[in-house]
């Protein structure tokens, strides 16, 4: 029926012309988008998804108390609940002959594909989310992964030449269908809310021209208005010629004088709601009002009667929960879901049951934050289990063609993780040396502290302040815990976690567990450093280092070698190469006499976990050349400089190309090969030679500066090429051919 209401309100408007629905119920509703009037929608059904909240009354009958038609949420939570319950109680689940949910989502996938079947057999469908800070982002990510669709934000999409495109790894990719999880008004800054940061400018015009299909269509928010429920029985009779099969809650609209009189005389038995649904709208329970609140409510109704509706108060039936080691009861609500098919609508065999957190709550209003339950619909015979993999085969091209935002966040996820790890390792080494049995010579201490400032990027830090060098404790504590200081360990870890939040759908469950543990360890370090450095500061950082190592190991052992893993590795290897070159320049670039130089070399090797290997290989030799051999050109050392550059060259050859086959090496490839040659052709003896006029190892400093500059240029080229597209690969190649002709 809501399908027919939508088509009528944005079409012939017979409901308004025949007086079935007062015009102010529709035209005064911000959810009614005049821009959508007369818009042609492909497919047999305009509304693809519909959800309804049901409460079971005292007589045992379910009553509908609200509908969700813009971007119905909750189906992903129901699926996740089913997955968990079926694993926790497999025997009970199997023996109970529970109807599976997979067929519902298979129907959804088929319906979405069918919306553009007249254009293409391989449609590109995306899930549009407000982003990681949405309260229901988990569901968006979970549902996108299950269906096999890219999860995109508004910034991932752009309108060009009358079509919607996704900014992807392979360039601009056309989008055919958008399964949106974004409210109507935020979807288009050009025609709807200009202050929205979530939508795609020009999206409504593209949809109006039929070049993209939105599920559900824009303007469907008007169907969620509580005021519409007051006229639903008459609407059903007018459109279908029959009464409602599932009753909706009895509703009175304040704009009707008879209804208004009933409301003010029976306020104690009713719930007062705004006529039009909004994010900030709240319900007023008449039976809970004291004398003052009752008077204020009556005054509010008298001031704007048409702005409010009243509904019967139906206490939700009690559902059992396990609380305090015993069974208890809480009021519950059931949300059910339907999806459009060619012949009608298919109902999910189950739903999302929610229960209140406390007995003080009389009805459940929040989707996220409340407890949820898996709802079973039982069959009289076992159902054949179907695999999600065979139901939803992924298009290989779409699997690799990820949104640029996802790739960029994974790239920086790897970089921030490496920054934090290298800083942590160097800082632990400095603490060990400062707190060692033998006092650390001032010259060696100064070089290590200055190297820490340069590696972390917290400049000037120790590089220009003699007082900090003499009393480094406060600065060292700040480098660990000051989250407002760019380059500090905490700032890097928080930046890494923020990148992880943006691509949560790409991270495995184990990875998310490790990230949660990392958050706990950050809080522990904060508490340890509350009053300056702890008594054993190096041990306080151990948990952070081991957690980062666990994260790195999990990514290497568990992640598929797709483009998401590739760019995370490119970020990690690039940052490790940059920081290794910076470390070599900062620690070995300035010579020291005898034992002091040996202490610097050993500290450097200790910070990169290479001291034991160095001693086994070179025994008592501590020459600078030997250290450079291990840290620069040893391909067997996974932390050597050449190892990182060699890995980057390997990964670059596997990335999508946007140049023609005859264009030769790409600029980023040239930089990597040049860096590789510079390292391989370096004379270690010359690099270790001290220029006494400058009192430095000038050749080493010059080479490391050159490597750092080339790597920084490499990251800029990579960013321009893969993270912010203005044209796809084919457009670039065609443009090049035209230029040559």
Automatic annotation (TrEMBL):
Residues 402-723 form the DUF403 domain. Pfam families: Alpha-E (PF04168), CP_ATPgrasp_2 (PF14403). Gene3D superfamilies: 3.30.1490.270, 3.40.50.11290. The lineage of its organism: Bacteria, Pseudomonadati, Pseudomonadota, Gammaproteobacteria, Alteromonadales. Transmembrane segments: none annotated. InterPro entries: ATP-dep_Glu-Cys_Ligase-2, CP_ATPgrasp_2, DUF403. Residues 2-356 form the Circularly permuted ATP-grasp type domain. It comes from the Bacteria. This is Circularly permuted type 2 ATP-grasp protein. It comes from Shewanella dokdonensis. Coiled coil: none annotated.
């Amino acid at each position: 029926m809501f399908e027919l209401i939508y088509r009528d309100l944005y079409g012939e408007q017979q409901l308004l012309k025949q007086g079935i629905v007062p015009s102010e119920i529709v035209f005064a509703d911000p959810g009614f988008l005049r821009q959508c009037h007369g818009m042609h929608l492909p497919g047999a059904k305009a509304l693809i998804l519909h959800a309804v909240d049901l409460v079971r009354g005292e007589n045992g009958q379910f009553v509908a108390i609200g509908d969700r038609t813009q971007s119905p949420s909750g189906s992903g939570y129901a699926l996740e609940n089913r997955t968990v319950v079926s694993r926790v109680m497999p025997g009970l689940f199997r023996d109970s002959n529970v109807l599976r949910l997979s067929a519902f989502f298979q129907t959804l996938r088929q319906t979405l594909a069918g919306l553009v079947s007249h254009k293409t057999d391989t449609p590109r469908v995306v899930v549009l989310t407000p982003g990681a800070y949405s309260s229901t982002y988990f569901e968006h990510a979970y549902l996108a992964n299950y269906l096999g669709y890219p999860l995109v934000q508004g910034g991932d999409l752009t309108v060009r030449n009358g079509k919607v495109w996704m900014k992807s790894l392979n360039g601009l990719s056309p989008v055919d269908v958008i399964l949106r999880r974004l409210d109507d008004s935020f979807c288009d800054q050009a025609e709807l809310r200009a202050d929205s940061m979530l939508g795609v400018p020009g999206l409504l015009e593209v949809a109006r021209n039929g070049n993209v299909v939105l599920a559900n269509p824009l303007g469907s928010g008007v169907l969620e208005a509580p005021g519409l429920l007051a006229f639903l029985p008459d609407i059903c009779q007018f459109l279908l010629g029959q009464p409602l099969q599932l009753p909706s809650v009895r509703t009175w609209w304040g704009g009707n004088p008879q209804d208004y009189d009933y409301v003010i005389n029976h306020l104690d038995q009713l719930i007062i709601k705004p006529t039009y649904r909004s994010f900030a709208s709240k319900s007023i329970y008449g039976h809970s009002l004291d004398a003052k609140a009752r008077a204020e409510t009556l005054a509010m109704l008298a001031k704007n009667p048409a702005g409010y509706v009243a509904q019967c108060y139906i206490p939700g039936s009690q559902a059992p929960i396990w609380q305090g080691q015993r069974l208890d009861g809480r009021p519950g609500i059931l949300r059910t879901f339907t999806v459009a098919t060619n012949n009608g609508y298919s109902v999910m065999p189950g739903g999302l049951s929610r229960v209140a957190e406390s007995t003080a709550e009389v009805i459940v209003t929040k989707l996220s934050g409340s407890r949820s339950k898996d709802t079973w619909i039982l069959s009289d015979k076992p159902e054949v289990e179907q695999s999600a993999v065979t139901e939803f085969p992924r298009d290989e091209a779409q699997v690799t063609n990820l949104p640029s935002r996802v790739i960029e966040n994974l790239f920086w996820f790897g970089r921030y993780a490496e920054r934090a790890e290298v800083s942590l390792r160097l800082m632990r080494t400095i603490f060990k040396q400062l707190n060692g049995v033998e006092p650390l010579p001032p010259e060696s201490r100064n070089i290590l502290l200055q190297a820490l400032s340069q590696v972390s990027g917290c400049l000037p830090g120790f590089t220009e302040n003699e007082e900090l060098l003499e009393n480094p404790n406060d600065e060292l504590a700040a480098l660990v815990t000051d989250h407002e200081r760019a380059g500090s360990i905490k700032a890097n870890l928080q930046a890494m976690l923020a990148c992880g939040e943006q691509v949560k759908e790409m991270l495995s469950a184990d990875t998310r567990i490790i990230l949660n543990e990392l958050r706990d360890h950050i809080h522990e370090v904060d508490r340890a450093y509350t009053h300056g450095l702890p008594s054993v500061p190096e041990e306080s950082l151990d948990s952070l280092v081991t957690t980062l190592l666990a994260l790195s190991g999990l990514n290497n052992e568990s992640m598929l070698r797709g483009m998401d893993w590739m760019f995370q590795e490119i970020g990690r290897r690039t940052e490790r190469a940059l920081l290794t070159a910076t470390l070599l320049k900062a620690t070995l670039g300035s010579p020291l006499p005898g034992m002091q130089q040996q202490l610097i070399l050993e500290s450097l090797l200790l910070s990169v976990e290479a001291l034991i290997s160095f001693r086994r290989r070179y025994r008592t030799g501590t020459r600078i050349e030997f250290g450079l051999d291990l840290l620069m050109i040893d391909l067997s050392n996974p932390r050597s400089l050449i190892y990182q550059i060699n890995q980057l060259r390997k990964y670059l050859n596997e990335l999508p190309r946007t140049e023609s086959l005859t264009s030769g090496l790409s600029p980023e490839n040239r930089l990597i090969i040049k860096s590789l040659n510079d390292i391989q052709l370096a004379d270690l003896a010359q690099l270790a030679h001290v220029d006494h006029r400058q009192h430095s190892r000038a050749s080493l400093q010059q080479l490391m500066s050159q490597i750092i500059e080339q790597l920084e240029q490499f990251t800029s080229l990579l960013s321009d090429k893969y993270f912010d597209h203005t044209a796809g690969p084919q457009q670039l190649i065609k443009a090049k051919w035209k230029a040559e002709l």
